Amino acid sequence: MAKGALKLAIIGGGSSYTPELVEGVLKRLDRLPVKEIHFVDVEAGKEKLDIIAHLAQRMIDKVGADIKLTASMDRKAAIAGADFVMTQFRVGGLQARANDERIPLKYDVIGQETTGPGGFAKALRTIPVILGICKDIEALAPNAWMLNFTNPAGLVTEAVQKYSKVKTIGLCNVPVSMTMMIAEMMACQSDELTLEYAGLNHLLWAHRAWLNGEDITAQVLEKVGDGANFSMKNIFEEPWEPEFLQALGAIPCPYHRYFYQTEAMLAEEKASAEQGGTRAEQVMVTEQELFELYQNPELDEKPEQLEQRGGAYYSDASLNLVDAIYNNRNTINVVNTRNNGTMHFLPDDAVIECSAVVGSAGARPIGVGKLGPAVTGLIHQVKAYEQLTVEAAVHGDYDSALMALVNNPLVPDITKAKAILDDILRTNYDYLPQFR
Amino acid sequence: MAKGALKLAIIGGGSSYTPELVEGVLKRLDRLPVKEIHFVDVEAGKEKLDIIAHLAQRMIDKVGADIKLTASMDRKAAIAGADFVMTQFRVGGLQARANDERIPLKYDVIGQETTGPGGFAKALRTIPVILGICKDIEALAPNAWMLNFTNPAGLVTEAVQKYSKVKTIGLCNVPVSMTMMIAEMMACQSDELTLEYAGLNHLLWAHRAWLNGEDITAQVLEKVGDGANFSMKNIFEEPWEPEFLQALGAIPCPYHRYFYQTEAMLAEEKASAEQGGTRAEQVMVTEQELFELYQNPELDEKPEQLEQRGGAYYSDASLNLVDAIYNNRNTINVVNTRNNGTMHFLPDDAVIECSAVVGSAGARPIGVGKLGPAVTGLIHQVKAYEQLTVEAAVHGDYDSALMALVNNPLVPDITKAKAILDDILRTNYDYLPQFR
Amino acid sequence: MAKGALKLAIIGGGSSYTPELVEGVLKRLDRLPVKEIHFVDVEAGKEKLDIIAHLAQRMIDKVGADIKLTASMDRKAAIAGADFVMTQFRVGGLQARANDERIPLKYDVIGQETTGPGGFAKALRTIPVILGICKDIEALAPNAWMLNFTNPAGLVTEAVQKYSKVKTIGLCNVPVSMTMMIAEMMACQSDELTLEYAGLNHLLWAHRAWLNGEDITAQVLEKVGDGANFSMKNIFEEPWEPEFLQALGAIPCPYHRYFYQTEAMLAEEKASAEQGGTRAEQVMVTEQELFELYQNPELDEKPEQLEQRGGAYYSDASLNLVDAIYNNRNTINVVNTRNNGTMHFLPDDAVIECSAVVGSAGARPIGVGKLGPAVTGLIHQVKAYEQLTVEAAVHGDYDSALMALVNNPLVPDITKAKAILDDILRTNYDYLPQFR
Amino acid sequence: MAKGALKLAIIGGGSSYTPELVEGVLKRLDRLPVKEIHFVDVEAGKEKLDIIAHLAQRMIDKVGADIKLTASMDRKAAIAGADFVMTQFRVGGLQARANDERIPLKYDVIGQETTGPGGFAKALRTIPVILGICKDIEALAPNAWMLNFTNPAGLVTEAVQKYSKVKTIGLCNVPVSMTMMIAEMMACQSDELTLEYAGLNHLLWAHRAWLNGEDITAQVLEKVGDGANFSMKNIFEEPWEPEFLQALGAIPCPYHRYFYQTEAMLAEEKASAEQGGTRAEQVMVTEQELFELYQNPELDEKPEQLEQRGGAYYSDASLNLVDAIYNNRNTINVVNTRNNGTMHFLPDDAVIECSAVVGSAGARPIGVGKLGPAVTGLIHQVKAYEQLTVEAAVHGDYDSALMALVNNPLVPDITKAKAILDDILRTNYDYLPQFR
């Protein structure tokens, strides 16, 4: 990567999150000599893209940064010569997400955009698009790093690792949020903590936690059981049963509620869907408000309201990765990367989420030793679902798709799996050319 | 093992299945020089034991075999000097089984005596007893082989492998039944088939099937999907969906219905429980009828009605093992034995069910290569449940017990897991000293 | 495979061993309906091929078997429609073998045709030829089994497994010879023994031995240490040190002498080379004598003198495999086949030598559990040499070739490795087109 | 570990290296609040210990540090309440080392104090002593970290991991020296490099090297082949063959010369032994000179001559570890630690040397993915030797000892292994109570 001048390509630049990313870049100009940012989006998102681009330009102008900003529909131009390609797009937009949430509910199954059948549907739509982006990167920016935030981030990253040559790291704001919340609970700085993270995206545990060399896992679990804040904005905060946390012996991520507290989460989702609307439907409203704000020509910084949107630490997580790679910092980040034996019971080419050392050579996972049966079975079950989903998404293979849903722990049996799958394929027909 | 004179100890000799076992011994006297059989049972089973002993004596007398038959409550005497110890007892009898079936149903969860929470409860009751038997074997017959049929056979065998030095093989009549049914479908002899079996007890697949070198897996799956007989007497024969079987690509065992057709099986169980009674309650009736038959002093052979009881091939499966070990036949049997790397993603000391070569050195599993994600996730999830159950049963550890049920795929979430666990511990209080 | 009519293609039909193979076929006509045998050889071996063909025809005629015998240079015709292709050719003939034995001796390194640099040179010559044969099989007899006896059998089989689709099993007469010698020592029938074989070709141990269920490993080792016959005709019988055998705790194969008794074996080889000639040079004499015998028009059976040649049980080992596959016997044979996790520390696609169940679906290895450090290091070191040799042989890659020899435990260091490699490449120039 | 006051116990405090360690402590007082240092040594080393203690006191006084220094024979007092126990002792002193170097040479085998039979003898002497120290730590300072520099560091650390509960990390100055030399070659800062280290102690490769994201492995190998400085003071710098380095494709450590350039290194050792004496005999002279210097009451800093002794970066490597643990820095250090699946083909409880993240929770290895056959065989062979050596050293088991040497790649065969073993046991009789 050339020293002294960085180009970032932002795929899905019209996202409401983008101002946070711009803010993150501007805060790090001493470390990251960003000279060019290219936002790209699809035709349907043109209006949002323009709003974002104008706001971003105002933010850049405010600090007087020497950054050339471009916004266009031209993906190839965006990617050509980029050092980092950051992907945060959403195929089908929020309406597709609303479908992902509502279809499973029809069958009394959790409807969520990243886990369960909803995440499955999103993966089917997203993977062919991301592999198209990878082809462009291979041709036009073969040394670029692709940092992927598009959900389901683990699945998407696994598809990229298996079916392209692009250097990639998948990223999520869950682990950094967990770390910050644990630091808050323990009233310490986050860098005083050592957290042994390993699992899959949105199925991540901190298996052990240390504060200054002392094992505090049990203490953290007790605090979480006592109701300490340990959730994300976009997940219903069903309280954790203290006895269960003690039996588990590892710190679950907020998304684990879908797997461990299934019936309560389902009940809440169904109530929400009937009342305020699914999460996607709520976000549509928030988004509209945000874009109204963004249009204000006086606004030249990220508005506070964005934080309500749910992507806490999103910008920090992503730009810290850029910093770690560009400056070979070899810092520890929790990322989605190739397993390579870290969890010996999963294939080497599976993508896992774990603590990794990130530097100019990419992400190298930190060993976790043998994990116990309290977690290995669930990890393997979900990874099996993910492996099958990647095959289904890439090859448009119905058998793999059916077996994927059959293996998803949130889907009770094959009858429901088949019904939901057929509904997903029907509803998403326009976005699933590989199945035609 | 001394050549020329074998002693068999039958723990749970008062079982209604015992006449089939006696018949099996008498059919094999040319190969197996059985000189002594000792039935042992607990006080509560004394009456049944006597009936069985008299019938068995009449069967022996009929063929004029030179076998000394003893029936007693003296387990140590039975075990002392035995060459084979065969375990087929049921702690708590059929009433405990009925509880195992009914408790989960209260929570809308599959109630079955070998899988799900029912099998879990049975394991908690059985494992301490079997480890007591192992202590006797270690002291009084250290070279004996223990052949275990007591369900859940895989879990019980794993406990024995981990917590005793007794040489053991766990056995089930499911695989031999599957083989016979496939042979019937294909209109061939069973020894013309090669079936690549691997999984866990009651979670067993034939991953590939060959007939004279030709891969017939797809053909068998098609026949099963078309309604060919592929079930066991004691399981409701919910039909298999052909599309699912094709997607699975491996031949499931009848018990897979609990995992793959959960809602239909649950509905059937609930209906049965309300109408004819649970399976245990039905068996109580059959048993009574059988024991009435057995008491007939004219009866000197296994009555045909026993076959309705559901244990087809039970005698053949067990005595073929005795034959293979005693005569070093190195035949292929499907047994429960130490994993030892056969399924690389499971611990070496996990007990699996797979095709194995059985001879005088015991059972040695046959390699299966890499299994795919259509099955690995489920196998690992269920094995995690089993590992935790063994720890719970041996140590009376509540945390392990809770995590075991949380990991059981038939239990939807932690709320139900906890409710069911507490109910099981309460209901089985007398049989679970380790939890007091 | 068609029932009722088998065709065998024998590649290298002009070998002096062929009469034994023919005898083996004629002994098994009740089980193996062989209707056609096609011997094929290269131009340079035409004279020998004719002699063998005439002798074979006389043998067939003697028993009046209904077998069509063909001998030709036409490899494609031989392979077309064959059920079994048996490979026993020698690229470069005995002269090349003599070079393999003499080159290393120049550098004070073991010169042997299957292990060490000699086996390496033979692999470089053989692998391209066998892959050519495989192409013919893929095109002309895609369902045929290739049974490979060509040394180094493990290496050659690994190349076939990795670089062709042909169904193959590699075979050696060492394990069957070990079994027969152990049976002789223990004065028992070979089928009373259970021998846990695992290792690589010519680096094979019986890790444990049982006789009727009793572990006799220590007894066998004591007898071997006391001088019981435990060698092959073609290896110098350097006596084993009893203390070493006890420390090893596993029964080594005769070829282990090269690795464990290196200096004594080297000294003997050097003395032989100066006096009677290397093994190849001695065999040239034996061969000439054999072929003189074979030409005798009165001779219509395998002459006794063939047994001096060193290939004891060669015919039985190979035709028992044909029988096991054709008749789905599922017998235990020790073969070279895909590792598939049997030795977890080796790659899945490595070819190992181990006890396997052989039937119509091919060879399935029997698990051996964890092997200890007394053997794992050596196995892995030699397998690393083999992996590199396969790459070198297939791609003509000098770097892999050099690293192969560097990793061979019989080559002391890189200086010698390079000198020997360059000598081998020079001397075998005509046979190594891939390196040009 | 208490914040604000650290106690260091230095076992083998009378070592000539100790002044460097003291200097390292004094340089880091801003980060490491060392308040107490306790040197301990054995009776025979009392004189040297006194000299070192006086010098250390002068060094402390010079900078006016508030550190209480104690020197005694009282190991328990030294250990009690220590935060870090640093072990750098030498059982039998330099005379024993001279024996380790000379005994193998008698048999034409490499004589070196850390690899080959010399390192083996040192392990036999050292392991019982270190396990005694561990008992003291378990009793008197259970939270202390033991940082072990005593050679053979990998073997000693493995014994501690397997046979004690002490938290330990093994350390060597080879990797840091390699990094510094590579930085010098590439004219860059060491923190610009990413070096993927993995192997065993003194058998360590940098498998890949990156400079600012660019793979520079081939460049480094070319420079090493061209004669760039890449050796340690205490190893003869036999030049590397460029063709070999290219074929290897990984950067070897200086000690690899013993394995890859065996005959040249042996020749050099034999010449040295006859002329200037073995390395130990040369060091005896250097040591005497150093201790004369140390006695100079004017001297109040580490004298430059110490650097000739061969322990470059020794102090930095060790105190950077103390810093990383005490201050939870999570920096990357190359250490000896539990494998835990990092190299999947080695047991989980093997100790390996690799890049690891070191913080207050100890060392966590960084994944290396699959290593290729160019290195895996040798690593496994040497680790097998090490596993057997640990067993031999702990249990005084002759069989394990013999198999250890048989598996050491520097020992040509069992005849030599046995001769050398018997010589070692005889010569070291006083130091090997476990073998009596």
TrEMBL record, chains A, B, C, D:
<keyword id="KW-0170">Cobalt</keyword>
<keyword id="KW-0520">NAD</keyword>
<keyword id="KW-0464">Manganese</keyword>
<keyword id="KW-0533">Nickel</keyword>
<dbReference type="GO" id="GO:0046872">
    <property type="term" value="F:metal ion binding"/>
</dbReference>
<keyword id="KW-0479">Metal-binding</keyword>
<dbReference type="InterPro" id="IPR019802">
    <property type="entry name" value="GlycHydrolase_4_CS"/>
</dbReference>
<dbReference type="InterPro" id="IPR022616">
    <property type="entry name" value="Glyco_hydro_4_C"/>
</dbReference>
<dbReference type="InterPro" id="IPR015955">
    <property type="entry name" value="Lactate_DH/Glyco_Ohase_4_C"/>
</dbReference>
<feature type="domain" description="Glycosyl hydrolase family 4 C-terminal">
    <location>
        <begin position="197"/>
        <end position="411"/>
    </location>
</feature>
<feature type="binding site">
    <location>
        <position position="97"/>
    </location>
    <ligand>
        <name>substrate</name>
    </ligand>
</feature>
<dbReference type="InterPro" id="IPR001088">
    <property type="entry name" value="Glyco_hydro_4"/>
</dbReference>
<keyword id="KW-0378">Hydrolase</keyword>
<comment type="similarity">
    <text>Belongs to the glycosyl hydrolase 4 family.</text>
</comment>
<protein>
    <submittedName>
        <fullName>6-phospho-beta-glucosidase</fullName>
    </submittedName>
</protein>
<dbReference type="Pfam" id="PF11975">
    <property type="entry name" value="Glyco_hydro_4C"/>
</dbReference>
<feature type="binding site">
    <location>
        <position position="172"/>
    </location>
    <ligand>
        <name>Mn(2+)</name>
    </ligand>
</feature>
<feature type="site" description="Increases basicity of active site Tyr">
    <location>
        <position position="113"/>
    </location>
</feature>
<keyword id="KW-0408">Iron</keyword>
<dbReference type="Pfam" id="PF02056">
    <property type="entry name" value="Glyco_hydro_4"/>
</dbReference>
<feature type="binding site">
    <location>
        <position position="151"/>
    </location>
    <ligand>
        <name>substrate</name>
    </ligand>
</feature>
<dbReference type="GO" id="GO:0005975">
    <property type="term" value="P:carbohydrate metabolic process"/>
</dbReference>
<keyword id="KW-0326">Glycosidase</keyword>
<dbReference type="GO" id="GO:0004553">
    <property type="term" value="F:hydrolase activity, hydrolyzing O-glycosyl compounds"/>
</dbReference>
<dbReference type="GO" id="GO:0016616">
    <property type="term" value="F:oxidoreductase activity, acting on the CH-OH group of donors, NAD or NADP as acceptor"/>
</dbReference>
<dbReference type="InterPro" id="IPR036291">
    <property type="entry name" value="NAD(P)-bd_dom_sf"/>
</dbReference>
<feature type="binding site">
    <location>
        <position position="202"/>
    </location>
    <ligand>
        <name>Mn(2+)</name>
    </ligand>
</feature>
